Amino acid sequence: MSALPLEGIRVLDLSRILAGPWAGQYLADLGAEVIKIERAGKGDDARYFGPPYLPDESGAPTSESFFHLSCNRGKKSVTADLASPEGQEIIRTIASDCDVVIENFKVGDLARYGLDYASLRQVNPRLVYCSLTGFGQTGPYRKRPGYDAVFQGMSGLMSVTGLPDGEPGGGPMKVGPSIADIVTGLNAVIGILAALRHRDHNGGEGQQIDLSLFESMVAALSHYAQIFLTSGVPPFRRGTQGNGGVPSQMFRCSDSGIMLTAGNDAQFHRLCEAIGHPQMARDPRFSNSLARISNRAALSAELEAIFVQKPAAHWLAVLEAAEVPAGPIYDFKQVFEDTHIVSRGLKIEVDHPYNGRTALIGSPLHFSNTPIDRYGPPPLLGQHTDETLERYGYDEARRAELRRKGVI
Description:
alpha/beta; Rossmann fold; formyl-coa transferase, domain 3; 6-stranded parallel sheet; 16 helices; 13 strands; about 35% helix; elongated; CaiB/BaiF CoA-transferase family protein; CoA-Trfase_fam_III
């Protein structure tokens, strides 16, 4: 097996729940050694988000929740009590030997324990210290707590998601997954890699990265937010319709639905030919992209009347032959049965002590020279405490004393 891109990088993951652990998991996929610090006897709160829980070989639920499994693969779990001087010393010792720290404590919390950036840089000036919080290290909201759903609302995402006001079921809608956490975690990976590159090519000094879920979510709204900044008029909710080329929406067929986007005039002309209505491309209301945007409702109504006449499989075959972008609307069973997803290897299996083989979602990154071709399972709570502390000089007697005191 070839070396992975980040082999030799060591990460101390002090984060919990999703955004920070998601960043740490990406770094672990890329070959970094990621040491996850968890509360002795309790662990990351994400371990308790369930059901479902991973079943053992007999089918009985274990302590491993779906949430923990989703964002902690490939890490090492070490337990340590941050509130105790001995636990703080363990973390400082490990941090002195790390390249990266990831943390998502409330602003100022880690300073009480001497584990903030200003303190840890004294023991390791090369440290890249990534802080993820709801609102950032500065600003009037910096002390506020927050979760993904809060930032979906505050960022404007919910204002452009869902059906328009006045329609049945209309109103702001939350996106299903915790998208603010996911986007912030990916931003953290970008920031960490950039800071490591700067450190290694500009004198060896680390730095702190200050990331907020609020800002990450606003920035991720991209062209939607730019519509407002350019025009002063906020975009409105259109259900499944896109904000760009028309048509771009879900169409109901005789048995299920499809998503279709004809993003330019050429694609629209091919669409009209493929569905047997070439005259639509010559209709002045639909003959160019601006006209189609102005007459969106009329065009949608005509296409809906056509698509509902035949099943989705028929239309998808016709549209693929015409090179018109379209796809089915899958549930997750269909996603992981899709031949393309199977061929790309996105569903993986790892050895797990509770049930032998456990299915997880793999990395979407495909490298030509350093492929991600091996994964470790999400760790059991404290699974790597002994081996890690032994590396840093804590012998068996010392570890036993720390266990007796509840530090590890």
